[in-house]
Amino acid sequence: MTPIATPGKIIAVHLNYPSRAAQRGRTPAQPSYFLKPASSLAPTGATLERPAGTELLAFEGEIAIVIGDPARRVSPADGWRHVASVTAANDFGLYDLRAADKGSNVRSKGGDGFTPIGPALIPADGLGEGDWRVRTWVNGELVQSDTSDTLLFPFGRLVADLSQLMTLETGDVILTGTPAGSSVVLPGDVVEVEVDAPDAPGSPSTGRLVTTITQGEAAFGDFGSAPAVDDLQRVEAWGSEAALAQAVAAGRASAAGQASAAGQASAAGGPAASASPAASAPAFELTDELRAAIDGVAVATLSVALRKRGYHDVFIEGVSANHPGDRLVGRAKTLRFIPFRPDLFADHGGGFNAQKLAFDTVEPGEVIVIEARGERGTGTVGDVLALRAQVRGAAGIVTDGGVRDFDAVAGFEIPVFSQGPHPSVLGRRHVPWEVDVTIACGGAAVQPGDVIVGDGDGVIVIPPHLVEEVVAEAVAQEAEEAWVAEQVAGGASVDGLFPMNAAWRARFEAERAAGDGGQGDERA
């Protein structure tokens, strides 16, 4: 059972959160809407079939408002007073049928079970329209979180706008839009949505609205428009080209989808137009053994190996560790800031912005790498977010900007490499813009998944396809240099030893083959 009687109307808003508008690359001047049938309603705990022959079923966690007193030609200031209660909803959509609907969303969002709602209603009385939060989890991982005080079009304005042409009747439901983070789900996935008012007395909550995705077996008939996807639909369904590429790497999207995304970017002159040398190589994995090998070599040695291969600008300039002697090894999770502008900060700085998303979704062993354009005149991370990264198991944080709450952050275990302390908050110089994209940090290009290594000499970036050969060479080089150091400590002159001439090298090779590692003396 849904928590409300079957509504006469279910009206959904297309774009309403700045985070989602930024993801889509367009910000509407006015709200636009579509209708969903009452037959699409489903309760918590229901299953939802992904129809046979389709691939792009996407979730959209939303705040649903339920009309109390009927509204007709009300003002935006009065609109909120016509809302009786608030609950959670999931506006599922099938991108495979968007083209067939020609913008109406009748089939792409109107299927049976495509509008789970509930499980409980929260009375709106005594609460404001900006007091609400919506969060979504997929398989237990938080993927969406935003608040109603960031909306482009507040709830009262939606009620007023719709009431200009139609009477909103008691029990009608308005789905108020989804924040960034909507993406594709697969059979077996479990999606949960919760709406709450965390700062209100008692922190009222709807509880979690749970939907389990299953695989449908009934094929579409040979009449009507058939499901179809293209490059744009794949990218929009997954949320971005980077998200699609990550899904392919994780085995959650087909290689055809990755090829389509790459083709789209290439046609547009985008990043995929110039494939990396490893574009067709198997997916790279930073194994525990490889991580341990990297951890045993210096950044300076890795730098030499990379320069031999033509990689001269992979050092992140100007950053140092908050703990002397710190090392970090991990794969990059990227975060990009753009220069501060009041209107852009108003749209992107609040709620579950890109900065919070990066720190709340970093995976164990990843390094958060922040592009701050070398601007050290404000903080780019503070104590709360650094602690969140540590709790989630991040391997470290690298920023070419400043660190706020520097002493507190230095008290944590997590290594943080930065340009030093600064007390100012983010909005002084930066707007949090996007995550999981190619960035420039300290003059070095960094892509999601690059291997990041830091020590007392600084931080270096290693493209994944070079890691194994560069590390193998660096390990060998460090063994050689350690042997040379033993000879120098024993009194040998560096002349002919560093670098080794033929005689010294022959001795080194002989001792290595014999497993000796003797101390040597100053005679060649």
TrEMBL record:
Gene3D superfamilies noted in UniProt? Fumarylacetoacetase-like, C-terminal domain, Ribonuclease E inhibitor RraA/RraA-like
Q: Does the keyword Metal-binding apply?
A: yes
Cite the Fumarylacetoacetase-like C-terminal domain residue spans from the record. 9-211
Q: Which Pfam families match?
A: FAA_hydrolase, RraA-like
Q: Could you tell me the keywords of this UniProt record? A: Metal-binding
Out of the domains of life, which is the source? Bacteria
Q: Which CDD domains match?
A: RraA_family (cd16841)
Give the matching InterPro entries. Answer: Fumarylacetoacetase-like_C, Fumarylacetoacetase_C_sf, RraA/RraA-like, RraA/RraA-like_sf
Q: What is this protein called?
A: Fumarylacetoacetase-like C-terminal domain-containing protein
